[in-house]
Amino acid sequence: MVVELSYEQVRRRAPEDIVHCRSTAELSPLKEIIGQDRAVKALQFGLKIKERGFNIYVAGRPGTGRKTAIVNFLEELAKTRPVPPDWCYVNNFDDPYRPKALRLPAGTGAEFQKNMEWFVSEMRKALTKAFESEEYAKRREETLAAIEAERTELTNRVSLMARKAGFLLQRSPVGLLIVPVVDGKPVSDQEFAQLPPDVRSEIQRRREALQDELRGALRQFRELERKAEAAIVELNKKVATYAMEHLFQMLLERYGDIDEVREFLEDVKKDILDNLPVILGKGQARPQQPQLPFPFPGLAEDPTDRYRVNLLVDNSKCEGAPVVMELNPTHQRLFGMIEKEARFGALTTDYTMIRGGSAHRANGGFLILPVEDLLSNPLAWDSLKRTIMNERLEIEEVQARLGFPMTKTLTPEPIPFDAKVILIGSPKLYYLLYSLDRDFKELFKVKADFTTMDWNEENVKKYACFMCTVCNKENLRHLDPSGIAAIIEYSARLAADQRKLSTRFAEIADIIREASFYAAEEGAEHISKRHVDRALEERVYRSNLIQEKIEEMIARGVLLIDTDGEKVGQVNGLAVLSLGDYGFGKPNRVTASVAVGRDGIIDIEREAKMGGPIHTKGVLILSGYLNGRYAQDKPLSLSARLVFEQSYSGVEGDSASSAELYAILSALSGKPIKQYLAVTGSVNQKGEVQAIGGVNEKIEGFYEVCKARGLTGRQGVVIPASNVENLMLKEEVVEAIKAGRFHIYPVRTIDEGIEILTGVRAGERRPDGTYEEGAINHLVQERLREMAERIKEYPR
């Protein structure tokens, strides 16, 4: 026999002394993940294992505090890990298209960048001072003196040779000119043209002979010039080296144990010595590198810009491994970019415009990414997989990845990647990626599930600490014991389970904020139960306009729902309407008509293409139940029609399959169903009533309709017995049950339910397959027997 539920059974109470404190102000803020032992164990395993591919996917519903909990958890863990190195990009003097990456100890990058700025400034001063000194002028003069003597001797020898041949040598911008001498005077080209032909021919003959003799001398002149230039270059290098040596030594003393930095400083030194005229502003550099399509803008303004250091990752402020959460994981924000600037109508760039991304900042630590946002950004997901698989970070142009034609640009040296990647997303996305992306299962081998947690003393205390954390962080009023208990009960309602607490911490935090607002408005010192209740009531009021309109239509008779009397083949089913931020229960009239025929059960919703596959499955199960129970000795000669009356938006789910079966049994037996009762629950072929979702909302939805018409003391809802532990009904409904004005009946079988709905016993099956007379099952069996006999009169 079914026993209706007492008011204690429809809502679990949290005693006000559930946490021994006068308010949450006395508690310690939460510093750990609560109630997620499975997830914590998975996280600890995934974060400690060093092997490749053991990155983590954190699965759970949005608003469960996954991100905050993971960040807090990682920040504590990160403090025990070493601080990763800094990374810089510097100029590659051999190939400017491929800037070099330098690894520096943590906190050294910014220092090295500043020291190189200091070096450039001091180097200029030192070189200027050295090359403007009297000592340098003296050494230059001494270096050139011997060469000048050779040049003078050679010049005198050549001049003498020319005079003997009747010519005079004159210097010009294009070299030495051979000027003929006539009557002891140099002759110009115009005067030479006026000379007699025989004189001109003689002079020309002597000039050609002299030129042959002078070629060797000219080669000696050029050799002397090269010798002088080489001597000056060598002198300049010695002077510059001596002037800069103390600066390089200071840098080497600080960074000499870092091979990459020592090599870079050697390249800088060589480049300075090779480009002294440009650095000193006294000439143009010899071409040391090819012309870039994106030329270095700085080189045109200041040749020493090529010695700058581009600090890509600065870990100087880290106290352990970095924890980076990128909420907008675009390709550029994750993996960096190469910036450009427009100069005189052309785009220019250089290695100082390379910018790192979140993956660079997280290198050596932890990178947290929301997977849904990651997948919605082109190229980001593929680049992340490639980075993890190749274990290196590459900064590249997005346009090139998309296949757009591009001019040649920079290709920075890749950086080794060693970070643990944590994806946060829904379980559905996890299963989709696992099934459809062949790389996913190899790269994310650890899954951490966030779900509801048990309602026990330890978790309740931690839950109260979470409330303390929210209040402290946002300067809200703290909760007193009644407020704590109210939040705990609301958490259980969110979980829809008397044994569980919800981990939808974002929603819990919102309720605390709203309750604090009403407490402040009232001038209360603490948040109490009445403030939490008001916050919940106001939240419902802001969102339940559609619900009120539907209830108004029911009250006015527009939507036909009976809450009194009895009718054959008609029952009140219950459904949940979800409107995004708010869901509520709504009664629906379910009717059944039966006749002799061979069609079986016809679902009108399905025929009208308004029924979903799960609803269709539920209706087909009804045929299995009827065949198994009543058609063992005769064919089921039935044509039944089922319909949700006034349903215009489609029907899905099997939670009304028991209501549909009750309507058919009523129509077959001729026994009316009490209209002041509503029904929810699915059914299997054996006649067992199964649990459904949204039981609280469904009960409350029918309660509101009955309340609007006046509670008679007979109204109530028939629910699956397996849903009793899911009950966390509103206080108003609990009080109505306590006063005997509303009832909840838990049933395990269709027989139990039909007895409550009709007031007629279902009847036990006898050994011969019949039922006791007058019972529902007997009436149904006899009606089906009559139909089977009748249909024989109408052969196919």
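Above is the first protein from milestone M3; the second protein from the same milestone is given next.
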Amino acid sequence: MSKKITDFFSNKSNDSEGNSRGTSTPITSETSAATTSEASAATTSERSSDLANLSQRKKTDRTLKSSTLKKWISEDLAPSNAFVWLNHEENGHGQVKLMKCMVCTTFEERIKHNRDFSNAWIQGSCNLRLSNAQDHAATKCHRHAYDLYIKNLTSKGELSSNMENPLRPHPSQRTLEDGFSKLNETQLEQTIKKFDIAYFVAKNELPFTVFEDLITLEKRHGVDLGDVYNNRKQCGEFIDVNAQFIAHQLNEDLTKAKFYSVLTDGSTDNSVTEKEVVYVLYFDPHSKSNPEEVEVKLSFLCLKDVKKADAEGITSAIEQSFESLGILPNELYSKLVGFGADGASVNSGNKNGVKALLEKNAPWLVYTWCVAHKLELAVKDALNGTVFDDVGDMLTKLYSLYHKSPKKMHELKELHDLLNYEFEEGSVKPKTCFWNTMVAFKLSALRIVLDKYGVYMQHLEHLSSDKEVTDRQKLKGYLRKWKSSRMLLYVALFIDVLNPAAILSKAFQDDPIDSVGAIHNLKRSKQSLDQLMSKSFEDLPSVKHVLNKLVVTDTTCTYQGIEFPVHSFNKAAADVKASKNTVIESIHSTVDARLEGASSIELESVAKILNTEHWKLLAEVDGVEFADNMITARPLSSNYNQAILEEWHDMLSHTVNFLQSEKANYKKTWRLLFNCSYSSKWKNILLLVQLLFSVPICNAKLERLFSKLKRTKSDARCSLGEERLTNVLRIEEEGPPLGSFDASPVVQMWQSQKVRRPNQKRRKKYRARKKKVKYYHVSEKDANSDDSVDDINDVIDTTPAPPASESDNVEDMEVSNDGTDSSGSGRTAALLFSDTDSEASDFVGFLPEDL
């Protein structure tokens, strides 16, 4: 039976199997090469195994004496303060067994999210080399843990003198100046411009893809921006660094602040994830942004995901938010004086609420129910069950009628353009008004309906008479209820009644607002309600506006084309006039009940102490002791009480006699007092003033953040993670305006974080390599067989490459597509090799094409 050339490889495989089974195979010219190859491979494998065992034995046998480690700590590792964090375990013979990092072990939960985190030095490192300890000391993860450790000691007052400079850079570590010097002037200018563009993207709530388009546009305008750091991924990193710089400034402010309060609110984002936003309120008597006044700052701290929005989850979110700035719980609770939130039981519960959990660590905590929420609830209580239910129902259904039908909205606009009435409100579409909306939104919806009342009613008349309208019966019912003089006059009345409450609500929503401003606005709102009580119904502004636009005849009263019988209009006016005082008194009483509780009494006392504009008048009536009871309202030690009262009387006399506080804003007066040469004598009373300015009043700013959250994390950007989303919101909330943002220090901080490559060129694409073929031994007998070249090609394609140890005996030859070798000889190249250890010589040559 004829043999094929592939039988050679089958025999070779069988020979290998036979040898593995312990059978004896005679050495022939066909098998000698395979046998020698296997022997060579085995020898190489044994040598590699011996080297590995030797290396492992050397690593295992490495010893480190305890005295040597102590020398490292005192000399080589001294710059990183290794005496603080480097611990070790001994094997009982004075030799080190393991090395551990104490600070990384202590703060493992805080640092495990860092990119370079490793638990090797927490469990114990057996790599007993000096370079290993030096590398660990230089990691960002270790420096973060060390920073937390130092802050913890500082808060306890246990920081020793030899640890005053605990974060000195390692000699091999790149310093800030070294990293920044790597950028030349051109590269520095390019990088600053890119940081500005990234800041613009985040500040304007734009997607990161716009960064690449802006880079292209700037290059088109001739701006030199280089070829690196131009993609959307780098835009995200630039935004993170910008936000980190803002957070670093906030950390410095909180470190200087004597007290602060925390404000929280919760909601869900577009990915249906529970979010808790945390803000911090603190007082800055030496504000750089406003050099003439003291400043109460309400700053965005963090946006946290909460697994469950219960008291424990919210409290944990608060602590984690401060920890993200490096403020540990000990420092947090030592300065925390207030907690502001809405009135939900999860926040205000006396036993298991967030307030109760915070009071366990800060018993002096003052809980403040947001005054803006209280005001909204007061107005809701006053109007509930009154005729405003009908007015509110009209506002809601009008909004739904046109919001859900573009056709009806188009017809309404055409009718509005045809009518020649004088309109004061610009909007044509009705605005929404639900019970959970702010008073200001209710007022805006009422004003639009009053201004376009005739347009809406005429359009409803047209729709209710159009047989093609499917819901015309429902519209007829609307028309019977709303097309009445009584409804028109009540809309005008509620505009006048809600206007003082809306002004107060807007004042409470200012960011930030202190107790002086809150009490001032509350008193002004009550005065406005009292003035409305004393005015006649016809003199109310909105009612007077309606009466002036009426076209009265003997039988009808017409308002914007809507006719009312005279007798029915007069009767409705009398009914609405009779209810005026009832509605105003109801709002007045509910506001007093909501805003004048025990906490409000304390709030008024605080405002009385801080409002320097009234000090002179009060001192003339009651003397310098007019606020003694307020200052000592909280229990203090007797010695402290006496000292603080003496300082209070001295400061009060100085202010009244020399500063003319009645003519200046109270914030300006306090700036003068804190910078006064006598301030060192009043340190106790000024400390109390800082505490009073840090009491929270309103958290309406937090609700506005959720509007930004919905715009930022839209349906198309639901993949934004917690950290990146927090950074974007931090820039939107706390970032300076675009015109005043300076990216130079941000670039400096970015350059110092790790090694950058500003000179990196764009990488070229790899070219596809030409196909190469490996050729193997072919015996003379097989070479003279009648098998086709296709069988050879099959062997070549299916046979593995020769081992690396035989690479010296193998040459590569490129084969063109037409089957010729690179020399153009017109023959298929089958390069063979011979084994030098074989006694039989192998045939070496080329196989002809016609084989």
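Note on the second protein: Residues 713 and 725 are 8 Å apart (CA to CA).
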